[in-house]
Amino acid sequence: MQFDVLIIGGGAAGLSCALVLGSGLSKPFSEGKKVALFAHQRSSHLSSALLNNVLGISPGTAGKDVLNSGINQLQELYPEVQQITKEKVQKISFLEGGFEVLTNKNTYTSKKVILATGYAQPFLIKGLEDYVIPHKKAKPSKERIQLENVNHLVYPGLYVAGTLAGHRSQYAIACGSGAAVATDILTEWNSGEHTKVHDKIK
Ligand SMILES: Cc1cc2nc3c(=O)[nH]c(=O)nc-3n(C[C@H](O)[C@H](O)[C@H](O)COP(=O)(O)OP(=O)(O)OC[C@H]3O[C@@H](n4cnc5c(N)ncnc54)[C@H](O)[C@@H]3O)c2cc1C
Questions:
Q1: Mutation test of ligand 1: which of 7, 43, 46, 88 has the most ligand atoms closer than 8 Å to its C-beta?
Q2: Cβ-Cβ contacts under 8 Å for 59 (sequence gap 6 or more)
Q3: Containing domain of residue 7, as a range?
Q4: What is the DSSP secondary structure assignment for residue 156, as one 8-state letter?
């Protein structure tokens, strides 16, 4: 199965990235682009979070409810973003002009890949060992990891978002990071002209 973008991880950063990319798929420059999200959520740090300090989210909201509603929001508003469930990515291989993504069930190819799998150890996705470094913004005693990157870019076509990108673990930061990667990709598709997706009250 061939994609333009595969997003790996259905937590804060991955879902936020999928929503912003999904909102840009109706633009003329996105015509024909195929995007999918590996909507794996079992190990999201949001599962056990209680959110009181996030703008726009009612205090007392359980992180697990945000995970559920995020999946529904993506499905209802942007069904063009394929949601791949019950699959965990095991290996990423570098191809000419793209990547091969191996899961416990299938093999996919994609021109771009976004990793949003969180900063916990062990990092189980094979093929990226050269890019794994100690996390720069977490307590060393926790032994968190990140992927070495410049402005979310690990390697041409390979992006990282959320805590795995080296951001501190706050929900809003992870979401912002995923959204930032999505707008970088939309901008590239728009021939380098800076792009964002805004809806307006009519
Ligand atoms: C107990 C607790 C309380 C918290 N409270 C707050 C709070 O009050 N306010 C706040 O702002 N933040 C809070 N946080 C932090 C917040 O939850 C994180 O910053 C945020 O979830 C990080 O987002 P992320 O996308 O980087 O990682 P995650 O949300 O952890 O998402 C990573 C995703 O990747 C998936 N995944 C992992 N490996 C694979 C694989 N091989 N293939 C496919 N998918 C994979 C996981 O299942 C998961 O869904 C809290 C965290 C915890 C643990």
A1: 46
A2: 51, 52
A3: 2-189
A4: T
